[in-house]
Specification:
heterodimer, A: about 250 residues, alpha+beta, 4-stranded antiparallel sheet, 6 helices, about 25% strand, elongated, B: about 325 residues, 7-stranded mixed β-barrel, 6-stranded antiparallel sheet, 5 helices, 21 strands, about 20% helix
Chain lengths: ~250, ~325
Amino acid sequence: MTQDYSITPQGDDALVVRFGHAIAPETHRRVMALLNYFTEHTHPGVTECVPAYTTLTIFYDPCRFKFDQNNNRPNLSAVGERPRANPYEALRDAVQNIIAKEVLESVNNGPSPNRVIEIPVYYGGSDGPDLNDVAAHCGLTPDEVIEIHSAPEYLVYLIGFVPGFPYLGGMSPRIAAARRATPRAKIPPGSIGIGGTQTGIYPIETPGGWQLIGRTPIRLFDPDLDPPSLLRAGDRLRFRRAARDESERQKENR
Amino acid sequence: MAWRCLHGGLLTTVQDTGRAGWQQYGVVAAGALDAFALRVANILVGNEERAAGLEATLKGPTLQFTKDSLIAVGGGDLSPTIDGINVPMWRPVWVRAESVLRFGDCLAGCRAYLSIAGGIDTPEVSRSRSTHLRARLGGINGRALQAGDVLPCGEPSLTARRRINRLRAKSEGVKFTAAQWSVSSEMLPGYQKHPSLRALRGEDFTRLTPPSAESFWRDSFRVTNESDRMGYRLSGNTLHLAERIELISEPTTWGAIQLPPDGQMIVLLADRQTVGGYPKVAHVASVDLPVLAQVRPGDGVRFAEISLGAAQELLCRRERHIAELKVSIDLRD
């Protein structure tokens, strides 16, 4: 396990910890380990942490670091007596310590048990108006596209773009399909699409250019819930082909 | 209830200081673009700094007060008046029930902030009342203020009640009374029509060609009409990277200056999407974000380099000033 990572400032109130430059589950595990540390150990100077494919961005309040050094959290207090030029350096040094002590150990202990979320999908028909186009483009039958799409266990790398939208890793390149030349003005919530080599689920009604192959009745985003997103970075996801009736039943049970 | 809206103005939304802690779920921070003005307006009426107020853009709303109220207006000068008389800014103002507050010409800045003692009391979404228009979240059903809306507000604080009593005692026969004092102009950010914004080099600054790097610090860039709460699209000299790169999506920050392939920069603001993939050439210093929020489409900005340490020092100095302001205002009562 390499200790290779970098920390860089992002303006004066955020920094980014970069664990790699290519999308890979092993790199993402380190991102998740650092995120989990900050989720379990809150600090008044750290406002929030946002994971992405290979990075964790830490938003902080510089004024808390400069003027509130007598905090009770040894992990984030001054290390030794070396003077620092600015709050960024104080946080950077603390993060380096955390990575050295906590993150690498937790990653070496194996991947933490993540949730596996099953998403029922009505494929094709009015729920997936572009399924036939995708099939034709890939030289497959619509059923083959469905089989290939629903086979893997996908990794949720991050949530972004719109509330609740998962960036998924693990789609087979056999069903990759370019975005539509003209985006749709309105995509129904729950629509499952393919855009290039990626697949994802639109949690809310938005414009979009992805090829729509199906739709789920599962609600990915509910502003009244805490957290409001069903999915989180680090989750694993499976698509399951569903017949319309069963999914209606599931909807009632939620 | 606080106000009955008679006219919504160009774009008026309920904003507090934003949703903190939800970006990892794709929930946008939102919040007042000029957070300084909102926070100070809140202090002036005895609210918590992060209480919800109204952000009015260029042309403000027309509001009728449903009861006697204590308000304050900060930020840009959108010519607030009651019965044709100017309502002075940056101080507490007691207003009689049934009075109508109107806004006129935009004389300075771009956005005005209107606070009311007790704060606007629309339902919270993810612990914030800020409006995110694109996702239709928060504020008044996730949209801008419209004629017919009635805005609820909370109870004035003890501090506010003392202030109200003082001002009401001087209000025989008038629609409103403003405090004789106001926030001193030295405390205000360097609001200007064509400001020089302090900026830190970004991770991708070194990818700029040398002429583009020079141009970035030297030239003026115009804020175009395609600017909104998500970001300001700038136009000016086309900037180039030494070589084309494809970046993986990463979280975005408020004040980040992105360079898309077309070479025209975008400065990200409160309603920016939580992740993006364009190179980040620089970051506006947080202390100058209120100045940026008051630049109007059509006006220009330039960038002046500042070090990380100096930017943080200025930010923290402003935070101390705001804390001192609160103490000194409270002592007046």
